Amino acid sequence: MTQQKLSDTPAAPGVRPIQAPAPSVPDGATGPVAPGPGAVAALWPLGPDQVRLDPDGLLGRWQRRNATVTLPHCVDNLHGAGNIGNLRAAAGEADEAFAGMWFADSDVHKTLEAAAWELGRSPGDAGLRSFVDDTAALLARAQQPDGYLNSYFTVAAPEDRWRRPEWSHELYCAGHLIQAAVAAARTGVSPGLVAVARRFADLLVERFGPGGADEVCGHPEIETALAELYRLTGHRPYLDLARRFLDLRGRGLLGPGRFGPVYYQDHVPVREATEVAGHSVRQLYLLAGMVDVGVETGDRTLLDAAERLWEDAVRRRTYVTGAHGSRHRDEAYGDPYELPPDRAYAETCAAIASFQWNWRLLLATGRARYADEMERALYNAVAVAVSHDGRHFFYSNPLQLRTGHTGAGEESAARRLPWYTCACCPPNIARLMASLHGYLATAHEDGLQIHLYASGSVDTEVAGSAVRVDMRTEYPWRGRIELTLDGAATVPWTLALRVPEWCEAHTVRIDGGPVIAPVRDGYVRLTRAWAPGTTVVLDLEMPVRQVSAHPRVDAVRGCVALARGPLVYCLEQADLPPGAVMEDVRLDPAAPAVADRREDLPEFPVVLTAGGTLADTGDALYTATSGRGRRGTPFTLTAVPYFLWGNRSEGPMRVWIPIAATG
Ligand SMILES: [Zn+2]
Q1: pLDDT tens readout for residues 538-577
Q2: How far is Cα 312 from Cα 302, in angstroms, rounded to an integer?
Q3: Residues noted as catalytic
Q4: Which of 144, 167, 562, 575 has its CB 3.0 to 4.6 Å from that of 569, i.e. a possible disulfide?
Q5: pTM of the complete model
Q6: Max Cα separation, the chain?
Q7: Rounded distance, CA 172 to CA 179, Å?
Q8: How far is the CA of 349 from the centre of ligand 1 (A)?
Q9: What spacing in Å lies between the alpha carbon of 429 and ligand 1's midpoint?
Q10: How far apart are the first and last CA of the chain?
């Protein structure tokens, strides 16, 4: 673990800081996002070596599966699909024709980032170690003398270098290279990769920096990457360039393109935007960059814009699963309340980007609503994208698969696929899962904040003393979280525990005795001079919830979604009576749903059973009467966690269930 010392980063002249900088950066604050000491952040991340997930908890199992199955699977496919061969050709070591998408390098970089986080956590994997060493060396050899590094524009289209910013993804790929290098340096796994990334970044500063080309990339990503490289190195021109890319956006520099400037958020200056728009992954990566640059420069206008767009995204355009992006066309956000469950695009990368953006907002503001959104995306929109076996993936994540579905193309597949022609999602999952422990908790001068619950432990320093918190829980299946605190017995400090937005009742016990612990701003805050061995038990009630959408969401009017804790549930064909048609199922809203453990399913999940009917819907496509479907055959309906659907067999699924008509 290397803790980089950063130079001071004064707020830009005339810009009001968001709040006073926290007085100190805890040692080892070197996770996926690491605000510098001058940043105007509310909370500080812990280093990935300070938080551990136990493999017997759900998040720990996901991380272990990622390490043992998904990551090696990604490495194999980078070889099989030609990504590594492309770089070998760029290094002059092979004659192979370029294979795959022109931004195929980004899949290598994301896998490299994932491997770095994983090796930082668990350094013993020799296969992963050699992948990192070999790939870092290959990237160095593929780098051009001036620092440029992109296999497509080196091998296949050198004449187009820097000539198609709306389309080329050159800066996007550079951004992922930089993020891989930052991860490799922060974990100490491959410090040398930073030299490669910096040579490229220095070229970018020279070409696009002040006095250089007024250009931006059609696919944001470079902004957040340069901010992180600045945090690592303290080299201010990287941050200035990130800010310049934000400042230049929205001036129509990219031209109308195929889908118009809104597609790549070039239709309005970032500080003036009032709505999320266009390609959802691009929008969300851009928002992540806005928060990073905002906290490092003290530019409140960037954070205000990011929070304003969060309101629009979460209040009007986010699926109940936390997924973003309704439309297949343009892979874009839809109109307000345009959230069709069956035609949902809901790209996996957008859910991951939302998680990363919300983490940045949480660090910047300390507001629990961003942790709530991280949790919703993680347990639903992100988790669903990976099969239980860890080697099959969804690209698009609809909330309904109809009987007789005929998907066209990889992006509307009825089942998870082992790899994709455009393979952005699997390595994105890998890098998030490999760094997942870095998102559980934060520190502040007052104490420790726990945002996501999982069995594991947190080690940090509070008020100058070492503190250890052990966490035991069956979350998300049960809402009971048991914490044991050790260290820092002499000075009072505050343990802040998030009470999720979905939770309406909770209790807290300290050493077995009940305490009054109201929720303030999304957290219960317990301040004590904690004696070693003190136990805290937080119990979050998890009744089954029938969730309704805003009435303007026409596509699911008259339906409810079943949810419990952070999990959204769905119906699967495998749980319906033989011959039943999924679209005929109705939920009896008056019959209370019951939670129960199912041991024949992966993860032994809590499933929900409720009263259902199979409506008599008839054959006529249209009728003049409104009474159709009132009579029906009762049956016991079973709902399973949405993230587990599609692991047993292919077949129809739905999250939103029509309510049985009464009378
Ligand atoms: Zn993707």
Answers
A1: 999 999 999 999 999 999 999 999 999 999 999 999 999 9
A2: 16
A3: 331, 424
A4: 562
A5: 0.95
A6: 77
A7: 11
A8: 4
A9: 9
A10: 66
